[in-house]
Amino acid sequence: MRVPAHLFSLGVRPSAIILSGDSAGGNLALAFMRYLHDHDGLFPTPAALLLWNPRLDLATNAETIRDSENYPTDYLPPAFLSWGARLHPTSLGVPTWIQVSGREVFRDDCVRYFNALQKIKGNDVELYEISDASHNVILTANLVDRKEYAKQAAENAADFLKSRVLL
Questions:
Q1: pLDDT digit string (tens) for 10-26?
Q2: How far apart are CA 89 and CA 107, in angstroms?
Q3: SS3 sequence of 110-164
Q4: What is the pTM of this model?
Q5: 38 in Cβ contact with 70 (< 8 Å)
Q6: Integer CA distances (angstroms), 154 to 8, 72, 84, 157, in order
């Protein structure tokens, strides 16, 4: 809570803040948005939300991960993924962009979450899928020689922001 308070004390306008999170950071970004929603008026909402391969259900167990059809094409070990809590869809109040990779174990969770968000009145949400990528395309693009995927995702996120947020 200190970061938004500090930003506002410096005179930063909420319309100049884009909240973004990758993987578990996407979970944190959504949790923060939920906190803002549940504590209306505590802080102004940011201009937009970018979620990069968000880890939405931190309580998924290792067996569920191994059962995913994308388990052989992703690199996250099941033991790493068996902790945390689940986020439930809510009214976010800001334009929200979700990037997902077609070969990651979280793909189905992300698509389900996107579909649930779309059904909530007032949500403005867009899903961008890179069909032939694994989890965390921005971080792993150099490692798996898929720099074009990272570039495409960044360009799509920029286009989303340009169409929804006055920059």
A1: 999 888 889 998 887 88
A2: 16
A3: HHHHHHHHHCCCCCCEEEEEECCCCCCHHHHCCCCCCHHHHHHHHHHHHHHHHHH
A4: 0.73
A5: no
A6: 27, 26, 28, 5
